[in-house]
Amino acid sequence: NSRGTTSLLKDSISFTEVSAAGLFEGHDLLRRGFTSVKNELLPSHPLELTEKNFQLNQDKTNFGTLRNIQGIHAPLKLQMEFRAVKQVQRLPFLHSSNIAMDILRGNDECIGFEDILNDPSQSEVMGEPHMMMEHKLGLL
């Protein structure tokens, strides 16, 4: 039954997964890191997803409280300041402390986990500067 076989092939291969290089493209270790089954699984603990989104949830709560107390202009002004601070950054291969963002959020006087053990995504291992700039500019 050739009709059944073609319908199975259409269902099993989605066209969004096919890139410009084709189906047989290798995994890019420089950009995506090592593959792991653990990264593809759902969160192992119910609180893991909440902890990952903690800052976003706290910002939403703070904006809601600020809106109720001072009106709609206060959270809008603060969000514009957040966007302006996020746009100012160092070159991609240099570590940035984002002190302005910490000041806006009120975390500049708090000592947290990331202050002592650091965020693993901001490790001290510096990458190839030319490669990272080309990736950021979309040349790779």
Characterise this structure:
This protein has 140 residues and is an all-alpha fold. The protein is built from 9 helices and no strands. Helix 5 runs antiparallel to helix 6 (73-87). It is globular. The chain starts with a helix and ends with a helix.
Descriptive tags:
single chain; 140 residues; mainly alpha; 9 helices; globular; disordered N terminus; POMP protein; chaperone
Short structural summary:
The chain has 140 residues and is mainly alpha-helical. It has 9 helices and no strands. The relative contact order is 0.06.
Layout of SSEs?
Blueprint (H helix, E strand, L loop, with lengths): L1 H11 L16 H4 L4 H4 L7 H5 L1 H17 L2 H15 L11 H7 L7 H4 L12 H9 L3
Major sheet: size, sense and barrel closure? none
Q: In what range is the share of β-strand residues?
A: under 5%
Could you tell me the number of beta strands? Answer: 0
Return the structural class: mainly alpha
Counting DSSP H or I runs of 4 or more residues, the number of helices is: 9
Mean pLDDT: 76
Radius of gyration, in Å, reads 22 Å
Flag low-confidence runs.
1-19
Which bin fits the share of residues in helices?
Answer: 40-55%
Q: Quaternary arrangement of the chains shown?
A: single chain
Q: In angstroms, what separates the terminal alpha carbons? A: 44 Å
Shape: globular
SSE order, as H and E? HHHHHHHHH
